[in-house]
Structure formats: structure tokens, C-alpha cells
Automatic annotation (TrEMBL):
Coiled coil: none annotated. Residues 51-94 form the Methyltransferase type domain. This is Methyltransferase type 11 domain-containing protein. InterPro entries: Methyltransf_11, SAM-dependent_MTases_sf. GO terms for molecular function: S-adenosylmethionine-dependent methyltransferase activity. It comes from Streptomyces spiralis.
Amino acid sequence: MRQHAELAGPPPQVDLRARARDWAEIQERMLVPLYEAVHERLEVGRGTRVLALGCGSGLALLMAASRGAAVTGVDPCSPERLALARRRLQPEAWGTRARADARVLDGPVDDLTDTSGTGTPAYTLVTAFEPIGCLAGDSAALAGQLSAAAPLAERGAPVVLAGWGPPERCATSSVVRAVVRPADPPAALRDGLEEVALSAGLRPDGSGRVACPFGYAGLDSAVRGMLSTGLFDAAIAASDENQVGKELTEALHAHQRPDGTVWMPNVFRYLIARTA
């Protein structure tokens, strides 16, 4: 849900470390059903070698590693999130026992090389769980990453892309439209997953939909979580974070329950494509 990073940097007034913490502590868990559905369908486990593009703070990688997979994460767009992923997956950096099967790497996908030592492709699964379809240019940015990553995977290896479901089934889309101004990049929440896969030289081979409701303890955590996605960066750049936070709070009132919690049902879609 953080589409802005390769397209335009976040507004200068944003505290990137605080935002990364909000993502890891509040927002990232909203996509757990998506991660679980993909891992189950593709039988991720021992023998699976995962390359995660835009790995963020590493929750999906941690879940794959807990199933026995060897995992590699890259995310050149958010060093702050990557630092949290490294803390989760490479605890030797913090004085505890290392995981030999987990790597978190700085730099773009193009910098990755075969590390198997055998000359064979390093990965059996590539994931790009960051949902596309929110901002202009996000599809093209992902296609470029996938094109660079595909040669690192085995022939016929699955590549997973994610996107938002239909707007009428995503309560969050109404909140985004209420805050993002017409002059900002479009917030149509259209995924275009098949088009992205084909443009990257991949072969679509199945898809699925997963319910990923956004649930928060209250309005404050909902605002912090939503802002951490990057969906509102253009609006922040046009005004300021406090103003956008106020508008977001107002839009979220419609989804607040009598007990103060905030609940927004959403459906996300994933596409499984195959390398050539």
C-alpha cells in the first residue's frame, strides 16, 4: 500500500521513522490474510526460496520463514521499513542468534546476483505484495522490478502480484477518495495485474481474492495506520500532514463503531504469474 516511493519521494515534513513504525505496528497486519492465502496455495515451506520485492518491514517474509522457507527481501524505497525487517529477520545485528536462511538487502533488484554458488537460479517464488492500482505510474514501476527479478527465478516459478479488489467491495476506497483531491494522482484502486505481468514477460496462471478488513482500536490508530501507507502523500505535499490527518479523521467517522473501533471491510486480489 505504499506506492509513492519509486514515483515521488514522501513530503519533507513526514517523519519517516515514525511512519515506518506505524506501518509495522498498526497497518502491516491488515494484509496477513493475503500473505496466508498465497503461502497456503503455493505450499510455501522447506525447499521454497522466496524473493520479496518491496518487502517493507518483513512480516510476509517472517511468515514464510516460519513455514521453513529461505527468504530474501529487498526494498530500496524505504530504508526505515527495511531496518525493521532486518531486525525481525536478521537478529544477529542485535546481538542474538542469526538466521542463515533470511537476508534483507539494500539496493534495487538489479543489484541482486545468484548467491546459490551453483549457477542455477536462486529463487523458486517471487512476491510483490504491495498492492498496485492507487497512483499513476505504480504499475510501470512494478513491471520494471519484475523484469529485473524474473531472471533470478527458476523457469516457470510463480510470481505473485497483488492489487485492490473492486471499489464497491473496498470500504477504504471511499476514505481515500474523500481525502485525495482531484488534482492528485487517481485513487481508482484498479489493479491491472494481468497487464503488469504481461508487460514484464510473465505468463498469468491463476488468481484469487482475499478479504482483508482494516480494523483499528480507534480513530487515532486508524489515521496513523492509513497515513503510513503513503496513499495520501500527494495530498500532504499539497497542504500539510495535520490538515490531511483532520480530513482523514472526518472520513473515518463513517466507519467508526459504537465502541470506538474503526472497521473497513476490503477485498484484495492476487495474481499468480509464471516466469518464462
